[in-house]
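Why Alpha/beta hydrolase? Reviewers of the renewal asked for a concrete example.
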Amino acid sequence: MPNLVLLHGALGHSEIFTPYLDSLSSYFTIHTPLFSGHGSNDLPADGITIEKYTQELTEYCTENNLTDVHILGHSMGGYVALCYAVKHPENINSIMTLGTKFDWTEEQALKESKMLNPDVILEKIPKYAQTLEKQHGSKWKQLLPAIADLMIALGKNPPLKNNLATINIPVQIMVGDQDNMVTIDESTAVYRELPNAKLAVLPDTKHPLDKVRPNLLLNLMKDFWNLS
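Here is what the prediction returned.
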């Protein structure tokens, strides 16, 4: 069976893919790696970057002997998937990204990173703080500033900039029409830059994966990968 790697986003967890596993396991051998700092994985002492996460994906594929992979990446997971495709085109068959932010500038990154203050989240969105603690343990408060630093580094030097045209595999860029982090315009711009891409705008869909209707996303996957 072909291999499908499901990549979670920043501050996310691979458990968000649970609603899809039964259906997809009929067609794929499924892999759900966790990025460092997430779940029970330690936060690296030297911090995290997109380049580090791309390296973690490379190591995961090497360790599991994956040379024939399809990837679905949510949010940051989609960005890492495309960075991996730039570096290892021979290992990868296709990519679907959902809710992946591509338009990173320093100004944008600073704005996004300011929202990642643990004290503000505890005060203003206590339910989200509980979710973060449940998924990542007590280190969630350290994970937030580490992700903020990752965003700022992305804003200063976005690794996909000027590299998209080198990705020749089939890619489907997907964005929800109610996503308040990612615009349809930036998704369309990336779709136009990729040589072999499709674009899907999901109706009545917000950014978090648990707010996406599973049947809607499953039907898009089945269509893209020609699953019957």
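Residues 140-156 form the longest helix (17 residues). This is the kind of structural detail the renewal will allow us to pursue systematically.
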